[in-house]
Amino acid sequence: EGFAVRKSPFVVLSTDHGSLIVNKNDKVTLQNNFSFGVGHQLFENGVYDPAEIDLAKNILVVCRKARGDGVVAIDGGANIGVHTVEWAKLMHDWGNVIAIEAQRMIYYALAGNIAINNCFNVNAIHAAVSDSLDDTSIPMIDYNANTSFGSIELKKVTGEYAGLS
Question: Which of 33, 70, 90, 148 is 20 to 30 A from 156 in CA distance terms?
Answer without folding.
Answer: 33
